[in-house]
Amino acid sequence: MKKLKYIVTFIFLALPSAYAAPQAGAGMQIGMGLPYIGQGGITYQFNNSIGLQANYNVLDVSSGEASVELTMPEILVTYHPFQGAFFLAAGVGTQSLEVTATETLTNNSIMAEVDSATIIGKLGWMWGSDDGGFWFGVDLSYIMPSGDDVKITAPGVSTSDPNYQDAVDAAEEFGETAYPNITFVRIGYIF
After folding, report:
1. What span, in angstroms and rounded, lies between the C-alpha atoms of 93 and 191?
2. What is the pTM of this model?
3. 48 contacts 23 by C-beta, under 8 angstroms
4. Counted domains in the chain
């Protein structure tokens, strides 16, 4: 079993490093994942080890009388430890959540807004970026929010109403809860 562990580690870290890391240059990228369905940004690679990314992530879903919009701009420093396809990244961002719902019977609506700073850790792979041009990648992020600012707007609903209190509790919990983001596909171009 220990030998299998070493083989898997070699496959995921050493073999992808046979594909060179991106060379110096600027580029752009788009991606799709969960919970952030839409992802886009720009990247600048200083050399084959260190890079910088500025990205914007969005989830926008509506169904009937309810909607959710989650956005997060982020700035990341990327590091290719083996100067290959595998990379680690760390950075900061600001997430904003806006949730609205309307009760159809009374037509009362409630909107919860949560803004918080985030610290982001990421690992992933970028294949095909070693000679510029198009590249493909996947990654996994861990997003840790802090310092949440919660605003609840509910005209016609008392602040002592259980529904109002539920919205406050849920918004505060979201602003303090860390979560992963999985990018299933990321396509980019380095000039």
Report:
1. 26
2. 0.81
3. yes
4. 1
